[in-house]
Design brief:
30% helix, 14 helices, two-stranded antiparallel ribbon, alpha/beta, 352 residues, 11 strands, nine-stranded mixed sheet
């Protein structure tokens, strides 16, 4: 970029009203255009003061969504990361920045190489980090098969209070939770895998990945784990790249959507809510986001979200859903209409 952000920057008609407004709980920016890096830069610009203050002296962790190290459409584009780095440079916050990932299907650094991330290290002095080779903590998650806690290795860097987490997500449909945006990028990128693990025959013998454990063995389990983990694993800043979205059988096997939008905000739930709306997906069908809304993890009411820049209605598209989208809705149904008497006939409620 260098001068790209400056030369392509379009002034907003609504920029006099940055940040939270009297009648709003959160603000989200939407930008459109033909330059990925510039879209990210402009989406972040309204929040310059708030972001600089929120970062303070913390390390900035840019977390891309590289679910597949070989498929660019499924993964975070280098230009989006560059737009964010240009923005951080403009507010004087590039002194301690890392790009960190635990890629899902193979060696993280192979993905960094395939997608051109190494030039960012050279240009901006950022450090590239493979979370699989860093310290981890143990957290317990739910599994719907046995209703017992299961241990997961979670990157310490992602849990560290000294990290300011930026989710650099793709706008994609998903075959487990309808859509994957800023929260899911953080929660499912944080579990680590053994060095040498891949999801194919080249996987080193005896190596495992802890990411499947987070899925909770089903549509109920994955939605609940995303919700429960959101309290300690969530973005401090959400950037959602919808320049080329993915529809259909994401997060790997979908097809491109020429959308040319970018969404950003400090309230990750508000940003994900706006992203869902731009994709034309019914919000009530997404379990984990509804759970987060129900328990006050952020703002999901569009009437309480101040939109900066472009309008949702002018850029809304209808993304094709995964083939199994009807199956995903099982999270809405109770496991049993009469669980206590059907499965535990001798169980009695006590109020003493």
């Amino acid at each position: 970029m260098g001068g790209v952000a400056a030369t392509c920057l379009k002034p907003y008609d609504t920029l006099a009203a940055f940040g939270k407004q009297d009648n709003y709980s959160s603000s989200v920016a939407i930008t459109t255009g033909d330059n990925r890096a510039d879209l990210a830069f402009r989406a972040l610009k309204p929040f310059s003061g708030e972001i600089a203050q929120a970062i303070g002296s913390r390390r900035v962790v840019l977390k891309p969504n590289n679910v597949n190290i070989d498929i660019q459409l499924a993964s975070t584009h280098v230009d989006t990361l560059e737009g964010i780095l240009e923005f951080l440079q403009s507010i004087g916050k590039t002194g301690n920045v890392v790009i960190a990932e635990s890629a899902a299907n193979g060696p993280t650094f192979d993905g960094f190489k395939n997608f051109g991330y190494f030039r960012l290290a050279d240009k901006y002095g950022v450090k590239l980090v493979d979370l699989d080779q860093e310290p981890y903590d143990i957290i317990y998650v739910f599994d719907e098969k046995d209703f017992r806690p299961h241990a997961v290795r979670i990157s310490h860097l992602m849990l560290d209070p000294g990290s300011f987490i930026v989710s650099v997500a793709r706008m994609k449909t998903h075959d487990r939770v309808f859509a994957t945006l800023s929260l899911k990028n953080i929660v499912f990128g944080s579990p680590v895998k053994d060095r040498g693990f891949t999801f194919n025959s080249s996987s080193k013998k005896g190596t495992v990945s802890d990411k499947p454990i987070m899925h909770g063995s089903g549509f109920r389990g994955i939605n609940y784990n995303l919700y429960s983990m959101s309290q300690q694993l969530h973005p401090h800043l959400a950037v959602i790249d919808g320049f080329a979205g993915m529809e259909g059988n994401g997060p790997n096997d979908g097809t491109p959507v020429d959308h040319r939008v970018c969404v950003a905000g400090l309230d990750w739930l508000a940003a994900d809510r706006v992203g869902i709306e731009l994709m034309g997906i019914e919000f009530s069908n997404i379990g984990y986001l509804n759970f987060c809304n129900q328990t006050g993890r952020g703002t999901a009411d569009l009437n309480k979200i101040h939109i900066i820049g472009e309008s949702i209605s002018a850029h809304k598209k209808s993304y094709k859903l995964s083939d199994n989208f009807k199956d995903q809705l099982i999270w809405k149904n109770p496991i049993s209409q009469n669980l206590t008497t059907t499965h535990y006939p001798n169980f009695r409620l006590s109020y003493t």
